[in-house]
Amino acid sequence: MGFTFAVRPRGVLQQSKCYGKSKIAHAISVPLFPAGPIAAVIATTVHLLAHVLVPGAVALLFFRSRWRYAWLVMLATMMVDLDHLLADPVFDPERCSIGFHPLHSLPAILVYALALALPLLRLVAVGLLIHMGLDGTDCLRQAR
Known about the structure:
Order of helices and strands: EEEHHHH
Strand content: 5-15%
Structural class: mainly alpha
């Protein structure tokens, strides 16, 4: 169950949503997000690394002249995760943050997107939207 990549004999990748076994003729289904406790630890580790590395890559690519400052501002937006302190349990690797925590809600994300229009808040908005996008990957992983 969940998202898979179907690998066709010619090596062409095609994304499909599968329920149970793949019904694609002559295809080999490979789980996009493996399950199990070790996979959860790996997914959490990759997720946390992405929260550091993706803003760094964006800072290097789009804010080259001041990339260190941009990276630090975007890293500071991880403070948005303080709203996890309102949840019980505080950390749940199987919980989708988007829509669950107040600062991860769709109205909050809309405000972050609107803040892109304000030059003074642009770096903060980029950092928050990157954060929400990365947290959204957990939702995809759990949709399996």
